[in-house]
Design a protein that fits this description.
By secondary structure, the protein is mainly α. The chain is about 50% helix and about 5% strand. The chain is flat and about 100 Å long.
């Protein structure tokens, strides 16, 4: 066995593992009739219990002598010498032979009854024995418990165990230890097995990576520490990120987008050379914005100008530059009122909702998400953040974790509440996370960020036969505002429902109220005939 030490004693050969708490199997031979097995850590009662099962005093004393080094404290076994005679009488008998054949670590205790242990997946003793004696034997109980909690069916968990058994054999053949398991090793394993054209070559990589992540989480395999980037560019972007978070209070996703633009600007200006920030010229800024305008939309170019102004203010505050270059950043042309917001009619929204098959878990989840978007006007990024504790059933409210780390409260409409209850009770998988919306297939984790919600909305639109020019969750938000406006709601009320910070953001919906705008239109002047 890998990493074990063999040692001779008066009782026979003992195989010591790397830890004093070991999974012990003893083969006690007494005329071919007596056999004892110990599977738990060796304490005082454990050793005594084994000793009294031996039919002769000589065999019991030999057993205690051999197991003494394996106890948590040596006196556990030593103190048994005086108690063996008091337990039962013994007679002389041939010596026994036993060996410790499997180490068991302190960090990997045996599972209790009812947990997702190997016994719940493999019933035949021979197969269980094969897995427990394998390379990953001490870690399989914890792994199957982990994968079972993620929602993997038993058939999949059993296949994962066979993949890990094959991985263990491959690592032994290549003289690799447990600590050697890493991403590059898994890649080599998949490539070699894939050349055989086996099923393991096709699915073994995913199982091995899940297992590697589990071992790293438990501290068995060290987590690789990324080498910090000590370049001048990396240090500057880190300092700028801290400034955006501490001084500006921006969200992480916004900070990431700002840093990407700044990094691109600095690379285009200085390349791989040193950052001579004091050498910035107005032409550097204008050239960068001009190049961006040829590749990006006006809305995105406007973000570029906002980021550069913020970055130059940061440099000025730190004393890196002496002139405020934020004043030389050109303004991107983007007419706010140049277009009319796209929206769906109430009939189209209802038709899209009716395409959800609410007889299955996926349909219940999609229906609840679409209702949150269409009835409460949630943003795509706010759907994955929703937690069960955010729904206040008795108060009839729902808390929304919105932009800028804001927490807003909206009324929980009965239609929305019924859809959420239907999904949580009959569609949501059992898992430990408190997030409301979960992946429909194992591993059961919260749905990804807004990209998943966008895909869901566009799929529902295709099912309903809707082909708007602009699709996605924002279209449902516009449709809600438009419907409220046509039903007599004021701009202030619409802004409260959509949780706008500024009234200027809400005013774009005034352009879709054609009936009110028609009353304001003056008649076109026409000359009378003959004048």
């Amino acid at each position: 066995m890998r990493g074990a030490i063999r040692r001779r004693s008066s009782a026979g050969e003992i195989l010591y593992g790397p830890d004093e708490r070991c999974l012990v199997r003893m083969a006690v031979a007494h005329g071919g009739k007596h056999r004892g097995v110990a599977r738990e850590p060796l304490d005082y009662p454990d050793v005594l219990g084994l000793a009294v099962q031996i039919s002769t005093r000589a065999m019991a004393i030999m057993l205690i002598s051999a197991l003494s080094p394996l106890c948590r404290l040596p006196d556990y076994a030593d103190s048994l010498y005086s108690r063996v005679d008091n337990v039962r009488g013994y007679s002389t008998s041939p010596p026994c032979q036993f060996s410790i054949i499997k180490p068991f670590s302190l960090d990997w205790p045996r599972g209790r009854k009812g947990e997702n242990m190997l016994e719940n997946y493999f019933k035949r003793a021979a197969i269980l024995e094969r897995h427990r004696d394998g390379f990953w034997g001490p870690y399989l109980d914890s792994f199957v418990s982990h994968t079972g909690a993620l929602g993997y069916p038993k058939k999949t968990v059993r296949r994962q165990c066979w993949v890990l058994r094959d991985l263990g054999k491959w690592m032994e053949q290549n003289r690799l230890g447990v600590d050697d398991l890493e991403d590059d090793v898994i890649k080599r394993y998949v490539e070699e097995r894939g050349e055989r054209g086996t099923l393991i070559g096709a699915c073994g990589g995913g199982t091995a990576r899940i297992f590697l992540g589990h071992l790293r989480e438990k501290g068995v395999v060290p987590t690789p520490v990324p080498v910090p980037d000590q370049s001048e560019l990396a240090k500057l972007t880190v300092q700028y990120s801290e400034y955006l978070e501490d001084e500006r209070g921006l969200a992480a996703i916004t900070i990431n987008s700002y840093v990407k633009i700044v990094r691109r600007f600095l690379v285009e200006r200085f390349g791989d050379g040193p950052l001579r920030l004091c050498n910035f010229q107005p032409t550097d800024v204008s050239d960068f914005i001009l190049n961006a305008s040829q590749a990006y939309s006006p809305k995105q170019v406007q973000l570029f100008t906002t980021v550069l102004r913020s970055f130059f203010r940061f440099l000025l505050m730190r004393g890196e530059i002496t002139v405020n270059l934020a004043n030389v950043v050109p303004t991107a042309r983007n007419w706010r009122q140049s277009s009319i917001p796209q929206y769906l009619s109430e009939d189209d929204v209802r038709r899209m909702l009716d395409t959800c098959d609410r007889s299955n878990a996926n349909g219940r989840r999609d229906y609840a998400i679409l209702l949150l978007l269409a009835r409460l006007g949630l943003r795509a990024c706010e759907i994955p953040r929703l937690e069960i504790d955010d729904i206040h059933w008795r108060a009839g409210e729902i808390m929304i974790r919105g932009k800028g780390k804001r927490h807003d409260h909206l009324p929980l409409l009965s239609e929305v509440g019924e859809a959420l209850v239907d999904y949580i009770r009959q569609g949501r998988p059992h898992c430990s996370t408190r997030r409301v919306f979960i992946r429909s297939r194992p591993p059961y984790r919260p749905i990804a960020q807004k990209g998943t919600v966008t895909t869901l909305v566009r799929t529902a639109m295709r099912r309903a036969g809707l082909k708007p020019e602009v699709g996605g969750p924002r279209l449902l938000r516009h449709s809600l505002a438009t419907g409220l406006l046509r039903n007599g709601a004021t701009m202030e009320e619409i802004g409260q429902v959509l949780r706008h910070w500024s009234a200027n953001t809400t005013e774009i919906y005034a352009k879709v109220d054609f009936a009110s705008l028609g009353q304001l239109a003056q008649p076109w002047p026409v000359e009378e005939v003959g004048q």
